[in-house]
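Quarterly update from the structural biology core.
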Amino acid sequence: MSRILIAVFIIIGVLIPSAACLAWFYSQRVLPVVDGMATVSSLTNPVEVRYDERGVAYIQGRSELDVYTAQGFATASERMFQMDILRRNAVGELAEMFGSGSLEHDKLVRNLGLKRLAREEFKKLPATMKDDLLAYCKGVNDYIESSSGKMPIEFFLLGIQPRQWEPEDTLAILKYVQYEEDESWQLDDLRQRVIEKCGDKLASTLFEQNLKGTGVGSDSPSPSLPPSVKSPKLVSDATAFLRTRGPLPSSLPIWGSNAWAVSGANTDSKGCMLAFDSHNAFTSPDRYYMCSLETPFSHAVGATLPGVPGIIAGRNDDIAWAATVMHADTQDLVIEQLSPQFPGKYKVPGGWDMMKESSEDIAIRFGRPYTLRSLSTKHGSVLLQNESTAVCRNWTGYDSKELVLKYILAINKAKNWQGFNDALASYSGTPHTFIYADRKGNIGYHVAGDVPIKTSAGSTVTPGWNGAADWQGLVKFDDLAHGFNPPQGMVVADNPQFNNAGSYNNPLRAIRVADVLSGYKQSSQRIGLPEMALLQGDVAASFAPLVKKELEQSVARSQVIDDFQTSALGDMKKWDGNLTADSTAATIYESFIRTLTRRVLEPRLGSKMTQEYLEHWPRWTIFTQKLLKDQPKEWLPPEERTFDTFFITTFAQSLKNIRLPAKNEDVTKISWQSLHQIRFRPMLSVDGLAATVIGPLFNISPVGVGGDQDSVNACNVTASVDPWNYSCDSGPSMRLLVDMSDLDKLYGSLALGQSEHLFSPYRTDELKNWLRLEPHAIAFSADQLGKQQQHKVNFSN
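Predicted structure, tokenized:
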């Protein structure tokens, strides 16, 4: 070994431990004060903040303004770096922190105009809610000012300090969440390309609707496409631009979340019960933050987003609430025809209109500012253009009336079903199914949000010049699905009966929840919180019996299998159909359905488009289920003669796809959790040499989990071009359980914990309990808080 190489190893051996020691001392210095006194200069009156054994903050003050100020300070003290990343991600300021590598993301966000929309929304907030938001901002800024030189270690490593928090930052974060949840444009683009490659019939089968091509993605003229318009390369470049991401991983919103409520007549406590788990990307820290906000006049407890005042999902003295994304078609990709004679003009029905233009500078660390010129039509911001054509993305979120914060602050104070609906009536964001329960025994649901009324062309890339892309208004609030105290005694979000908003959600999880709850009712067994928690962790495979039956029948009819397949099939026969972490049959099942689907689709769509279909169409397993059940000959791969042989050869390939990553020939010894593992992505993601020194400080060891995207405990399987990749990057990162019969029957859990600080005791302390489905009791009453309190700090000015 050369001396230089030895020297390098010595340096690394010294550098990494030294860095770890430095990180430990610095991180201890910046941990928030949780006992004694803390100065929060914007407070009018003192506020008491108590912490329980999991670091949940219980904030008590004399006025709502003081409580919101304290919430801003307390949240920032635990999540300031995450908050700064979230707002930079939302307003397009990542390049200012990370340099030119983040410029494309900033260009996209500035092009969408989220900060401008947030500024306009703030103007429209009621005066009292403006005051609430400003109070929260003051609390965040009090923390920034009082912690100069003692910010989280990520700021130290980057050599940067956060700027002051502004109201537009909070509203832009909420706007970006809406944007992320609303990406139905990806399906418009995908449907269009599937039609072009395979025809209307195949595309209609894959997407479960009657589709017709518009011609906008073809080089040859069509009746709907003027010869002057050339779009294929432009559309693909525009969609690539839209897929630009910053350092934050996508939350993969296509999988949705779970929420349901059960009436008191069906529970053991005689009180209504509500369950909610929010499915998001697994990040470090968690997406949500738990807290309690109490004044002499109001009290709300539950989960919120760092950077946002109030409680987003939880309960108050009278009601409990939660919401899941509907995934309605709220966007269109639109092709505009530009004037060859008059720059800036685009064709509309009956004539020409002028595009709007704006420009702004984007700061770039270690580089010159970039001046961004943005154009927009009546169909939204122009993503890309050439001399004859522009590509826009229309979105309900471009309307600045989307007062999401107004809804949040209003529902925190709702006292009954009427107050719940009054709060929802002001909500005009991404369509959600909102679930309700109250202390008087009532349950209900209401879909709310902006659902555009479209022409039939709205499912593919749409021409803008002939009126096909023009929306005909929005579905009225009262016309969206809703119900109060339904006769079945339960409400389940994503239940197909709620789908009058054009949702493309996969209903398998909701159907499973409804079946289990109905089973309890039919057996006259009253449901308790243990049963609700057990259902949150349910990992039943959606069509395991069908897979087992078809495999067994195919083998019986052919008798052509080897010893490996015989052993694996025996494992499947004994399987109970649950995707538990330690199950080996679960591994075989998951590999089989994915291998089967790819073998059918790749000869027709190609590998890349098949990957996109599996990644962006949440109902792909329903297509797979129909393949197994109906066995349509037109879908049989060209190299196969019968479905029996197809299933057997697919089974053989799926076993190979398990053995390769596990490096084990005996698939009956390969547990699902050994391949299906969560890798939590830190807010500060690093590459290159820095990853060797900095990466180990922030990385959390992967953990194996059960379930898949279709099970109630929806730990997804990442869609990957590598058939042996079964990693998990999203799932129920936050869970809530509420029994309205008792103020203190409120339970919640995060996948990791309350804090982002590197050596905080609350950074990963919830992980083991989260994996075991053991929720944390969150106090509501003073008596219960007294029992759970571990620390207390008094905030004063």
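The longest helix spans residues 3-30.
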